Structure formats: C-alpha cells, structure tokens
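Model: You mentioned two targets. I'll fold them one after the other.
Researcher: Yes, keep them separate.
Model: Target one:
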Amino acid sequence: MDQRTLGTAGPTVGAIGLGCMSFSGFYGATDEAASHRTLAAAHDLGVTHLDTALIYGQGQSEEIIGRFLKAHPGRRFSIATKGGIVLQPARHFDNSENRLREQLEGSLRRLGVEHIDLYYVHRREQERPIEEVAGTLAKFVEEGKIGGIGFSEIAPASLVRAAAVHPVAAVQSEYSLWTRLPELGLIDACARVGAAFVAFSPLARGMFADRMPTRDDFGPQDFRYNTPRFVEPNFSFNRAIVQRFNAYAASQGVAPASMALAWVLAQAPHILAIPGTRSAEHLVQNAASGTLALSADQLSEIDRLLPRGFAHGDRYSDQQIVGIERYC
C-alpha cells in the first residue's frame, strides 16, 4: 500500500486507514466479534492507521480497539482519537486544558496504551482562542502522552493560527466525490503548514459501496436517517447520479469503493483517507485503492460523471452541523 506521513514528523502509515466510528453502532447494529475481525483484516492488509473518538459510543469504539490490542499484542497500529465534545448535560464543546486532559487520560485507559500517535480536538470551542488550545495539546506532546496534534473540521485560517503555536500533524474533514468543500482552501492550507489532510467519510457514508443503500436500510438510530442528502426527494436524485459512477467503475473492472478512494488519494500527496466499515470483506476493497493508480482519462471521466456540487441536499442537518467551522 502507498505510504503517507501524518505531518512532517511522522508516523508513516498506509494511505488508507480505518475509521472506527461504526464499531459503536453509528450506522446500525454491530458486535465486537465483527469489529475484531475487521481489525485483524486491517492489519493483514497493511491498513495501519486507526481513527476513533471518545464520543463514538461514549468510549465504546476505543474499548473495542483496546481489547483487540490486548488480545493481539503483536499487531500494532498508529492510533488517532479525539476529544473536546461533552455530551452531558447537553452537547457542547470544551477545549479547556482540564477537560482535554481528562478526556485524553480516559482514552489512554480505554485503549490500554500509554501513548497515542495523534490526538485531535474534535470540535473547536469558538469562545476559546485556538492558540490556547494548540498550546494545551503541545503540553501533551511534551509529556509524551501524544505524538502529534490535530483538529477536526476547522477553517484554513484557524489551522494557520494553530500551526503558528505548534506544528499540526493532521486536520480531518469530510471529503469525497460528493463533498468537495476542503478544495476551497483547507487542503492547500494543510500543504502550506506541513499537516496531513485526513478525509473522513470518503465513501459518502456508503453511497459508493457495491450495494448502494436504500431508505429502508436506515433505522431511526442511523446517523443518515435525518441527514438531508439521505432524505427524499434528495436521496433518489443522489442515487440516480451515483449509479452512473458505479456503472463506470464496473466497466473498468474496479469496485466503486476502490475507485472512489483512489480518486481521493489522487487529489494531493498529503491526503489520507479513513473509510469506515464493519465488514472485513469491504475492507479488502478499501485497501485495494491504496495501490490503484487512476489514469488521466479515468479522472476526467469521473469529473464528468460527478461534477463538483452534484449532490442534492446539505451534508448535515442544521443540528448536525453545529460546531463545524464554515469558511466559504
């Protein structure tokens, strides 16, 4: 698999990582045995970077990873997790040193490790200067608790301010063939400051899978149930457009997931992708994109089939988007 670096100081990991949000049932019911099979397959396929967070099942995803690592001490991953969101008594953001330290210590305990390679602020607390937050994360680096600092869903201007305090290893944002906002400055800003850009939901929350989801697949607890792009009539419009891409991928002898991920990686050499899956079988397709080089003709045809802005509906509802920095 193609190898890419999380920031200028490493570590070097496979260009395709594994997003572990689905381990906590975010997209429907799952079980720990299936998650452990997925982790075992990831290791065997060269998928060496895991991405999780405190709020994925309120620590459940971290605990599942921690139990796998304990049971398989020879299998090592580069792990990223996230803090800064507080769910009780009401969801809000707290980037204070005390809160981040408390959450980091909890993540270390659940993962069963003494050091985390990359620690993100999951959502920025707007009332607190980002320079202060970067300084807090820098303390964790100095203490040996984390290897690098990161931010999720921040604006390019915020990244530049944070990087002036301490090198930022990575910024993660949603990026895929149907979510192109990071092209308006964030990917370039990451390159300027030496940060990796980590694309989450690079398969459009399942739209580029072999079997495209239907509305019947979304139970009330599924994140997509009330997300505008998955609500009618938007969903039917989007399915029809994406089906053209899926047919093209098949005509090229490539799984849609592999082609969609290869497209993401082709956009810049500092981009990594962290598709999530509960299935070891789907992971094989994801990992295959780490060695798939798309031709200029293929990239041109993909842009024709799925031009910027093709998706109907916003990527988040008004409630879901709270805390994400908008910059264009």
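Model: Target two:
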Amino acid sequence: MPAHLAEIPPLLIIPFGLLLLLIAVMPLSPDRVKHWWEHRYAYVAVGLGLLVAAYYVFKIPDGGHTVLHTLHEYISFIALIGSLFVVAGGIHLNVKGSATPLENAVFLFAGAILANFVGTTGASMVLIRPFIRMNKVRVSSYHIVFFIFIVSNVGGALTPIGDPPLFLGYLRGVPFFWLLERAVLPWLFTVGAILAAFFVIDRRCYNKIPRSLQTQAAQPEQWRFDGSINVLFLALIIGAVFLPERWFLREIVMLAAAVASYRLTPRLIHEENKFTFGPIKEVGFLFIGIFMTMMPALGYLELHGAGFGITQPLHYYFATGSLSAVLDNAPTYLNFLKLAQVSTATSGVVDDTPAAMQAFLAAHPSLVIAVSLGAVFFGAMTYIGNGPNFMVKSIAESAGVKVPSFFGYILRYSLPVLLPILILTAAIFLR
C-alpha cells in the first residue's frame, strides 16, 4: 500500500463495519425490513463502496490508483467466481437415494482433495448440488456448514490452485509444490478432525430418522454424470488462472468459457440443477461493496501491523486467521506475508524479487506456513471469509435448505466446533 494511506481517517473504516453488520442482521429482521433489504441490498452495498471510493479519489493523493487496483482485483474475483458458477451449473450429478454418514464423510474428503486441483470455488460449485441431493431425505443446516468448512475452505490449503491467497503467493515466488511438501500433516489433521466432528453429528441425526428412511439411505448410490462438455470449460477456466494479467486476458477467457457453457448446456440440465443467476447476482453486488469498503481496513493493517507485536508463527497464524474471517483472505494473506518479510529483514526493506522470496522461504518457512494456513483455514469462520462460502449459502437457500444466519453460523458451528480444531492444529504443528 502507498504511504499516503496513512492520511485516511479511521472513521473511513465505518462503512465496512456497517456493511458487515447489515449482512449479518438484515436476514434476521422483521419481515417488512427483511423484504426491504432483499430488494435494496445492491444499492446499499454499491452506495457504501462508492462513498469510500470517492474519498480515495478526491481526498487522497493518487488514491484513484488504489481504487483502480481494487476494482481490478474485484473483476478478477467475480470473473473466476461467476464463470465457475455458470459452468458448474451445467454439470449434473444424478444421485438416487440418500447418503449414509460414512458416505457423506467420504464425499466431503474427496471434495477436500478435489479443491486442490480445481480450487475451493470450483469444487464447491460442482459438488454442493449433488451433496444436497444425496441428503435430500434429511438435509439439514449442518450439512451445508460442514461442506463450507471442508470443501469451500480447509480442503484447498495445499496448492496455489486451491485458494486465491496461495495463488497470490505463487505469483510472488512461492514454489508451486512448496506447501504440499510442508503442510500435508496439518492439512490431514485439520480435515480429519472436522470430518470426525461431522460424522458424530451426522450419525446422531441419522439414527433419529425413521427406519424406513434409514433403509432408503442405505441403498447403493446410483450416479449419472450429465453435462460432460463442461469439464472442458472447467479445465479452461482453471488454466486461465495462469495466464498473464495484462489486458484482462485471464478474465476474458473465463467469461468466454462461461458464455459457451451456458449456450451449449441443454436446458434440461439447468432445470434439474434449478439453475438461476440469483446467487451470483447477490455475491456480485455484496462483494463489490466489501472490496471497496475494506480498502481503509487493509491500509491500516499494512501501515500499523508492525506495531502489533507479531513475531512468532502462532502470532501470524491467528492474526492472519482472525482478519481472514471477516476480510477477504487474499489481500489479508499478502499483507501478513509482506509484514513477515519486512519484520525479519535486517534492513527493514524487502525487494519484490523471486530471489528475495527464496531467501525468505529458506530462512523462515514456519512463518509462511502459518500465514498460509491461517488465511485458508480461518476463511471458514464466517460466510464472508472466502468467496465460495456465500455462494454455497445462496445455492442451498435456493434449493430450499434452511441455513444458519450470519451469527447462527458463528455461534452454533464456527466458535464451538471449528475454532477449537484450528487452535489444536496450531498447538501441535506451529509451536
């Protein structure tokens, strides 16, 4: 971040906090207020974003450059999220019957592995609808929450493709297989612990359903894969991630794949998936507001983060994680990675060169692991911690599944279930 961001008043962080508060409380409001929010959220999100952007443009020297950079990041974000949403909407895994707890656990573990090859967004968009159909006899809110925990977040912690923060690290010199070689054990432990918690809850609920439904759930699953052409478009989108950033080439390829997918996918598949553009519309408007309003928060973090006393791997893990839960985890990762580099450099200045990154990785690998795992794992703590989270929530709601509110998600699942597991991971692997 440029030094001029020091001139931004702390009060400018208020729009970001207000937007997060509205996202959290409006769905819980009386019907009249809730109805108003459902029809006006786009205006509120964009309006708050424009308020912050206007201050940058007119009051901050060269602030327009920061706004343009943030807009570029948003376009890249929504191009990836949107194209994967459209392409995944053209893939239909036909599932008959209902899954047992063991089958659910195996499915989620497979999703965690897949997330490292097609990204948490890609894996989430492809698998969430089949997962709901697998459990259509007894689908509940905890199915969606644990899907977000495992497939939409923790699963993608091993490769740059897995989660956007890790891809940004790859672009800045972290080797492709660097985390895979060093973080498999904490990844396996965390995924395994979350799956164990899920299995206990799912088994208890499964035992409470009528025996006739248990018999139906025990029937062998019959799978049918429709929309296979979209596998090609999915591969094209993932491949586009590695294209140069110039001229929006990457985003153009992604959007072209989405358009081709939508045109070539038979209407019947979209109907079977209950595909609509509603979820991506909601994510698009809310996140343009989030991206714009969080600029002052991220600027403050970079300018004053060195004074927070963050020195040890545990510090970086929890500091990166706590902010990744409420800020977009990609820029949070970059800020703490830069903070780690600056704090450990003898001169206090770090060159943005591959050689400098290699030297830093060799000298302080535990700090990079801590920042990486903190950014990816803690993205599951709230609906807005990572891009796929809100998308999965919207798709589940569109399918008629009752999902927890913003605070319900945190109070019923994140704090009592996920957070102790993440703390235990740190205690074992990051001491």
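Researcher: Noted. Anything on target two?
Model: Residues 1-5 have pLDDT under 50 and may be disordered.
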